[in-house]
C-alpha cells in the first residue's frame, strides 16, 4: 500500500470548505432509508465510512442515487427493509456496524454484518448486551466481536445506562427503540454527541432529552427530509492543527459543524491561547454551523480529562501531536476508549511521536507529550497501522519536524478525509 512523504515547513493560508460531517452523514442516511418518501442529503461525507453505510443500506433493499456529494435516498418506511442476500460489510466503520445493529434488531429477518480486520477486533458487547435485553438474538464471533449475526424480532423498550460513554451505543439503542413496545430510555453519565437525537426529531420521531436522559417513542411515521450536512469539525481539527504548528499561518474554514457536543476542542484550544474566532454562526436544520478563523500563535498546552476527554475523543490524537509545539505539553487522562478505536491510538500515536523524537509517557487511559520540544522533532518513518486519524495527526506533526517523514499506508486517511493530503498541499501553496 502507498506511503506518503511529508516535507516540513511552509505556512498555511487561504480558505477551505470541509467535506460533510461523518457522524451526521451516517445518521441522515440511515433515517432516510427508514423514512417515507425521498430524502435528499447535500454535502454528504466523502469519507469511505459513510460510503460503507450507503452500501449496507443498498443491500437492505434501499435505492440510493449519488451525484457528487448529493445523495438521494428512496425511503422504505420503518417496516420496508428487505432481507439482504449476503453478509453486510461495514468495512472500517464502527458507526455503521453499531448503528445498523440497532436497526437490524428490529427487523423480522436475520442479518450478518461484519467489517475489516480492524473492525473485527473492536468490542461489540456494548451493543449486544442492550439489544439482547430488548429481545434481539445476537451471536458474535470470537471475543464477542464481529461478525455479528442478528436475528431481529419483537422488541421491548428498556431503560439502559451504557457502561462507557458512547454515542454509537446510545444511537443503536435509540434506533432499536423505534421498533420497540414502549418508550426506550438511555441514561448517560457523560453526555455524548447528540446528532441521532437531533436527526430523529428532524425526521419526525418523538425524542425527549433532559439532563443526560434520552427517551424515544416507538413506531413514528418518519418523513423524508431535505438536509445539508455541515462540514466535519473533527476533520477540521487536522487543518487547524497544521495552522497552529506553522508560524505565519492563517486559515478560514467555512460551514464547520459547531454542535456543542462536538466543538469542545475549539474551547480547549482557545483556553490554551489559540487565536480562533467564530465570526459567523448559522443553523442547518437542528445542527449549528459557523465560519471558523484560526491563526498561528504559541500554545500553552494543558491537561484534558474526565467528561472533556470523552467529548473530544476523536480530536485527542491531533491534540496530543500538538504537545511538542506547546509550552507545557499535552496530558490526556480518562481516555482508555482510545485503545479500542480503529487502532490502539494511545500505543500507535506514542510510537509514531517517539520515532520522531518526541518525549512521550503512556498511561493506561491516556498519554503525556512533553512541551517545548518542537526543536527536537526530526523526520522519521512512521506507521499509523491503517488508522486514519493517527496518519493525519502524524502528518501534521511532521510539518514542524526537521527533515522528511514517511507515513506508511497513508491512503487510510480516506476513511474520513480522502482529500486530506491534497488540501494540505493546496493550503501550503505546494500543490
Ligand atoms: C461516533 C461516536 C464515537 C466516535 C466515532 C463516531 C458516532 O465513537 O469516536 O468516531 O458517530 O457516533 P464511540 O461511540 O465509540 O465513542
Would you kindly provide a written description of the structure presented here, covering whatever features stand out?
The chain is α/β, with parallel strands linked by helices and 431 residues long. The protein folds into two domains: 4-19 and 231-428, Enolpyruvate transferase domain (UDP-n-acetylglucosamine1-carboxyvinyl-transferase, Chain, Alpha-beta prism); 22-228, UDP-n-acetylglucosamine1-carboxyvinyl-transferase, Chain, CATH 3.65.10. 30% of the residues lie in helices and 25% in strands. It has 13 helices and 25 strands. It has helices at 22-34, 48-59, 94-104, 125-134, 167-177, 195-202, 233-245, 264-271, 307-311, 316-321, 345-355, 388-398, 420-428; strands spanning 4-6, 13-17, 36-42, 63-67, 70-76, 88-89, 110-114, 137-139, 148-151, 155-156, 159-160, 180-181, 184-187, 207-210, 213-216, 226-228, 250-257, 275-284, 287-295, 302-304, 330-332, 360-363, 366-369, 381-382, 405-407. It has a four-stranded mixed beta sheet. Strands 4-5-3-16 form a four-stranded mixed beta sheet, covered by helices on one side. Strand 14 and strand 15 form a beta hairpin. Helix 7 runs parallel beside helix 12. It starts with a strand and ends with a helix. The model has no long low-confidence stretch (mean pLDDT 97). Bound molecules: shikimate-3-phosphate (S3P). Shikimate-3-phosphate binds at residues 23, 94-95, 166-168, 171, 193, 313-314, 337. Shikimate-3-phosphate (S3P) is lined by residues 23, 94-95, 166-168, 171, 193, 313-314, 337.
Amino acid at each position: 500500500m502507498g506511503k506518503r512523504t511529508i516535507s516540513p515547513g511552509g505556512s498555511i493560508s487561504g480558505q477551505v470548505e470541509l467535506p460533510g460531517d461523518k457522524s451526521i452523514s451516517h445518521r441522515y442516511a440511515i433515517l432516510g432509508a427508514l423514512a417515507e418518501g425521498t430524502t435528499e442529503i447535500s454535502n454528504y461525507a466523502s469519507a469511505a465510512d459513510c460510503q460503507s453505510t450507503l452500501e449496507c443500506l443498498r443491500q437492505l433493499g434501499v435505492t440510493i442515487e449519488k451525484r457528487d456529494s448529493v445523495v438521494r435516498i428512496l425511503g422504505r418506511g420503518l417496516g420496508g427493509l428487505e432481507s439482504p442476500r449476503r453478509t453486510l460489510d461495514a468495512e472500517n466503520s464502527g458507526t455503521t456496524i453499531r448503528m445498523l445493529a440497532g436497526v437490524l434488531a428490529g427487523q423480522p429477518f436475520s442479518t450478518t454484518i461484519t467489517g475489516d480486520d480492524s473492525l473485527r477486533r473492536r468490542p461489540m458487547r456494548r451493543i449486544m448486551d442492550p439489544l439482547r435485553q430488548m429481545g434481539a438474538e445476537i451471536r458474535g464471533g470470537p471475543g464477542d466481536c464481529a461478525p455479528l449475526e442478528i436475528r431481529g424480532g419483537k422488541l421491548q423498550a428498556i431503560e439502559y445506562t451504557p457502561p462507557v460513554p458512547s454515542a454509537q451505543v446510545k444511537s443503536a439503542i435509540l434506533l432499536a427503540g423505534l421498533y420497540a413496545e414502549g418508550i426506550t430510555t438511555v441514561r448517560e453519565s457523560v453526555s455524548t454527541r447528540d446528532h441521532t437525537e437531533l436527526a430523529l426529531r428532524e425526521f419526525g420521531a418523538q425524542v425527549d432529552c433532559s439532563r443526560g436522559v434520552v427517551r424515544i417513542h416507538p413506531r413514528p411515521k418518519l418523513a423524508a427530509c431535505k438536509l445539508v450536512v455541515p462540514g466535519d469539525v473533527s476533520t477540521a481539527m487536522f487543518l487547524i492543527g497544521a495552522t497552529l504548528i506553522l508560524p505565519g499561518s492563517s486559515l478560514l474554514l467555512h460551514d464547520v459543524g459547531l454542535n456543542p457536543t462536538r466543538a469542545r476542542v475549539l474551547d480547549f484550544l482557545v483556553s490554551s491561547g489559540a487565536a480562533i474566532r467564530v465570526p459567523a454562526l448559522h443553523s442547518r436544520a437542528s445542527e449549528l454551523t459557523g465560519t471558523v478563523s484560526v491563526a498561528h500563535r504559541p500554545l500553552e498546552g494543558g491537561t484534558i480529562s474526565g467528561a472533556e476527554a470523552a467529548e473530544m475523543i476523536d480530536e485527542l490524537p491531533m491534540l496530543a501531536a500538538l504537545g511538542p509545539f506547546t509550552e507545557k505539553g499535552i496530558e490526556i487522562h480518562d481516555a482508555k476508549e482510545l485503545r479500542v478505536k480503529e487502532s490502539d491510538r494511545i500505543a500507535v500515536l506514542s510510537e509514531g511521536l517517539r520515532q520522531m523524537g518526541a518525549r512521550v509517557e503512556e498511561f493506561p487511559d491516556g498519554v503525556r507529550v512533553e512541551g517545548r520540544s518542537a526543536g527536537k522533532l526530526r523526520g522519521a518513518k512512521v506507521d499509523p497501522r491503517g488508522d486514519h486519524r493517527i496518519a493525519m495527526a502524524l502528518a501534521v506533526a511532521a510539518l514542524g519536524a526537521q527533515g522528511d517523514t514517511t507515513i506508511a499506508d497513508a491512503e487510510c486517511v480516506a476513511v474520513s478525509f480522502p482529500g486530506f493530503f491534497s488540501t494540505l498541499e493546496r493550503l501550503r501553496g505546494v500543490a
